[in-house]
Amino acid sequence: MRSEADRPEVGVGSTNPTKVRAAETVFSRLGFHRVAAWPVSSDVPAQPLGREETRRGAVMRALHAQEESGARMGVGMEGGVARSPDGRGWLIGVAAIIVDGRVLVGYGPQLLLPPTVMAAVEAGEELGPVIDRLSGLTEAKAGIGAIGWLTGGLVSREASWVVALGAAAAPLFHPDLYRGSPIDGTWPAP
Fold it and tell me: Which domains does the chain have, with CATH numbers?
């Protein structure tokens, strides 16, 4: 059994370096420095489609990471693709934090996907390999990601995860302001 000093404060449901660094950035601002990566399942398809499936993947990663690591907090980040009512395809990112039985969720920047990319994803391909093929990169999802490549490097994948995770963590930065809101213990973990 792991001692309290050896137990991570934050279990991240991914070993992807961009997600782990984003978690380290956000949680270090909150005073938590023991962050550990855990290879867990999202319980959704490898390429989530739609906001709800992407959100569910982030929450399940957070839940599994917390359970498997024994950490006080579990963190999950899930990238997905969603189609808007006007038919356009969007890259989306959702981050979830599970702490004290609460589920905190935040969203990252949304980016319009080129029609050819959206068509490939809807035909069953994962976004990462599609971006690798179009960009000539290898494993872009572990580096600049689709968002980095499509924005000419202006927005990195890591930065987009910091935004999503920072948005989810807002109640942790200002607990008094969120007291009594739906995220104050009334959103149970799945």
Answer: 10-178 (3.90.950.10)
